[in-house]
Amino acid sequence: MSFDSLGLVPTLLSAVQKAGFTDPTSVQAAAIPKALAGHDLMVSSQTGSGKTAAFMLPALNRISQMPPNKGSGVQVLVLTPTRELAMQVADATKLYGAHIKDLRIATVVGGMPYGAQLKALSRRVDVLVATPGRLIDHLQAKRVNLSTVHTLVLDEADRMLDMGFIEDIEHIVSRTPESRQTLLFSATLDG
Ligand code: AMP
Predict the structure, then answer these.
(1) Residues 6+ positions from 143 with CB-CB distance below 8 Å
(2) CA–CA separation, 15 vs 1, rounded Å?
(3) For the CA of 47, the nearest atom of ligand 1
(4) I need a surface site. Which of 13, 15, 47, 114 has the fewest CB within 10 A?
(5) What radius of gyration do the chain's Cα atoms show?
(6) Does residue 3 sit in helix, strand or coil?
(7) pLDDT tens profile 2-44
């Protein structure tokens, strides 16, 4: 199977090609067409399997097909268990979204100064990558609007649960529209 047959827009295919990817990994081949069709997904995937592109390419595909985002509301929200993973996801998003005009990506994570995050959240944000605790801080201070989220990604969901983030995640999810698409990625899908 090639990337061309997955149904992605040309701006994403050219970015994937530039990244040097020739064929989708198995998790990408399985998840991307289903995500593009609008389904909610629960995907069992390991680090290194290509899971980031498996959720980010369909999420960016949807962004590229929406009318220009004029408000400040977030379109795609990715929750990750750790700051390091959030940074990696944000870097991958820059790579995969390199040919989408004026794409804005913000990262909101714990253990980092508030200044840059406040500045990023005061402007339009298309993709927000966050760890749960710090995002709750910003939500409580009404600095972020999640009512416009069309795609919610829970990355390494099992680790987030192990780290005790369940209540934070439930609160964050309750701030997103029920009509959103939810993509859950986890090393294990037990329980
Ligand atoms: P991830 O599991 O998303 O952290 O990805 C692991 C690594 O695989 C990253 O360095 C990606 O750049 C790379 N990668 C993702 N998809 C592909 C692909 N289809 N072909 C080759 N490398 C890939």
Answers:
(1) 118, 121, 122
(2) 18
(3) 2
(4) 47
(5) 16
(6) helix
(7) 999 999 999 999 999 999 999 999 999 999 999 999 999 999 9
What's the CA gap between 43 and 183, in Å, rounded? 8
Give me ligand 1 centre to Cα 175, in Å: 31
What's the rounded Cα separation, in Å, for the pair 4 and 191? 36
Phi, psi of 177 (to 5 degrees): -70, 145
**Pocket around ligand 1 at a 6 A CB cut-off:** 21, 24-25, 28, 47-53
For residue 45, which atom of ligand 1 is closest to its CA? 2
3-state secondary structure 72-115: CCCCEEEECCCHHHHHHHHHHHHHHCCCCCCCCEEEECCCCCHH
178 Cβ contact list (under 8 Å, min separation 6): none
